[in-house]
Amino acid sequence: DKNNIYFNGINIKFLNGIELKDKDLKNIGENYFRNKNNIYIVTDSDIDNEFWIYKLNLSSDLLDFKVISKDYFINNGIGYYKTDQIGKIDEKTFKIIRDKYSKDKNNIYFENKIIKNVDKNTFEILGYDYSRDRNNVYYRDKIYLNFIPKEIQVIDKIFLVTDDKVYFKSDKKSEIEKDSFAQAGHLPHSLWSFYCQRLGAFW
User: Which residues of 2-151 form beta strands (DSSP E)?
Assistant: First the structure.
């Protein structure tokens, strides 16, 4: 209408100096819009049934802007994850592996970060921000375990379970013995409560 812009039938709120006069916004794919001078991305807000629209800070020519998916785009050979710059990528081989993970002929990326020293031929996503190759287990873009356990799985979205230990999903590695962990039972609440108690955390 004359006072609002809508996305998926929901009113878009405006931020970062975008004024209602920018009603010339045109959708260029997925959740990306543009007008004569700028390109914008529409994202979820913290409020139900509302979206925010942000102007992308792109200093280079906008004519080479390519939408890859709702989370990825390329502008003049530079890859982006949402609003964060990945860096120079190989456009011909760039592809999305799975949510948050992408790759080209040179690197594998988690969100906008390179997973360094990863073996591309044996890389495998375990789920919930964990991955592995033949040498290491990774959490996000960092090496989490510098060895490969005989058994490995992710349970209840937050626990990395190996043949003898259990690790909690975190940038700071914490572990307990698997035999002790198993005594807690199998309910997510019980597992989390037991894990916190063993680490001396208050529950």
Answer: 6-7, 10-14, 26-29, 32-34, 39-44, 51-55, 65-67, 72-75, 78-81, 84-88, 95-98, 101-103, 108-110, 113-114, 124-127, 130-132, 137-139, 142-145
Instruction: Report which secondary-structure segment, H or E, holds 197.
Output: helix 188-198
In angstroms, rounded to a whole number, what is the distance separating the alpha carbons of residues 144 and 177? Answer: 17
Burial group, residue 123, by CB count within 10 angstroms (0-12, 13-18, 19+): middle
Structure confidence at residue 203 (pLDDT): 35
pLDDT, the chain, mean: 80
Residue 163: pLDDT above 60? yes
When pLDDT is cut at 50, 70 and 90, the band that residue 187 belongs to is very low
Sheet holding 137-139, edge to edge: 124-127, 130-132, 137-139, 142-145
What pTM was computed for the model? 0.80
Q: Which amino acid is at 149?
A: P
| Strands 72-75 and 65-67, bridge-based pairing | antiparallel
Query: What was the pLDDT predicted at 25?
Result: 78
Enumerate the β-bridge partners of residue 13. 52
Look-up of token digits 């998916």: 69
What is the C-alpha separation between 73 and 28, in angstroms, rounded?
11
3-class state of residue 192 by DSSP? helix
What pLDDT is attached to residue 167? 84
Whether 198 and 184 have beta carbons less than 8 Å apart is answered as: no
